[in-house]
Amino acid sequence: GDASGASVRRLADWDAEDLRALAAEFGTPLYVDDLARVRQNYARLAGAFPDAEVLFAVKANAGRHVLRTLAAAGAGAECASAGELARALDAGFDPADVHYTAVNPPAEDLDYACRIAAEHPALTVTAGARDTVERLAERGFAGRFCLRVHPGVGAGHSESVSTGKDAKFGVPAADATAVLADAAERGFDVVGLHAHAGSGITNDQIEEHEAVVSTLADVARETDLALEFVDVGGGFGVPYREDEDALDLERVAARTRAALDGVDATLTVEPGRYLVADAGVLLTEVNTVKRVGDTTIAGADAGMTTLVRPAMYGSYHPIRSLVAEERATENVSVVGPVCESTDVLGEDRDLPAPERGDLLAVGNAGAYGVEMASQYNSRPRPAVVALDGDDAEVVRRRETLADVTLAEDTASDPYP
Ligand code: LLP
């Protein structure tokens, strides 16, 4: 294990023998989340932003083990749905440290959030549309309110995760003071401003992040409402490629502070990936090997239903063979068991010549891994094991074929 809390944990840093033992005990595919690493990531992030409030973006990994760990470490929670809100409260986050960020919220989500806000007046609700403000008012909402601004600048690892520009999120910065005033007139307790540039910000996108913060700072100076906090979103990237550098957090923090100069409000940040990505690996077993021209195709038991990021965004995840013996390397494509040609975990990898029964580890699976897993092809989702020191515990059981038809089998009972 890595006790140092270094800013990057590479896939190579995981102990192969430990991972083989986990696969042998719990089967594959298997998500492994190391809670000690989650704590280290939180401590480093919170250390870089010493007087900020840190909210974990639950969407990155909503597992109860992760939420409990971060709640105990002192984090708050940013929730994007009624389900995430329910999970955050269930995991023990103090409602005062919980934000619900409504995005075109279905009526049931708003009903639920308003009920929770009435029960727990310390909860903060963030909205990014006039319609959402009206729909909150229709429900008698009078709680803590934060406005999401569309900053007009985006960032992130790909166009598909840029939220700050030409995307559906937030009200245009030019309308922000008017919407804030309207919310206050309706009796909302206006406490904050919010924006999120995108997900996976790297060292060469710190400017974009800073521009987003500057836009928020402008709105904060413009409004005559006293704000408690300015929430600059998440998006702090982690290296996925073996040779990529860690994000310079100190620099991000310094630029964030500089952009907020003169704004009398607490800073809030919402990291998701940064806290959990390198705390997780996905273990998968090779069951089929084909040699096609210069490429070897390794068919594994995990694929796009287990980790969709490569298929969905073309994302790179490191892949490592956990075989103990020495073998010559080959050019390998690792593919999954789904009937789709995009069902690829990695292409063009230099890996020890694969053989049936080999165990592979896929890195950075702790963020947006199990959260984005699906049952496509009627494939049950894998188990999750939480590591904590010498402890390994199944925190989410492997689904079975019965889980695949559960919603149909219980269709006549809406609350099985
Ligand atoms: N706050 C808000 C309002 C967000 O929309 C997001 C991410 C976050 C915080 C956390 O972002 P993070 O720190 O994890 O980058 N499925 C994609 C990522 C989409 C994230 C959407 N919003 C992926 O696998 O890369």
TrEMBL record:
Record: residues binding substrate: 273, 309, 313, 340, 368
Residue positions where N6-(pyridoxal phosphate)lysine is found in the record: 59
Name of the protein in its database record: Diaminopimelate decarboxylase
Broad EC category: lyase
Species of provenance: Halarchaeum grantii
Entries under InterPro entries matching the protein: Ala_racemase/Decarboxylase_C, DAP_deCOOHase_LysA, De-COase2_CS, De-COase2_N, De-COase2_pyr-phos_BS, Orn/DAP/Arg_de-COase, PLP-binding_barrel
Subunit and interaction comment: Homodimer.
Gene Ontology terms: biological process: lysine biosynthetic process via diaminopimelate
HAMAP family: LysA
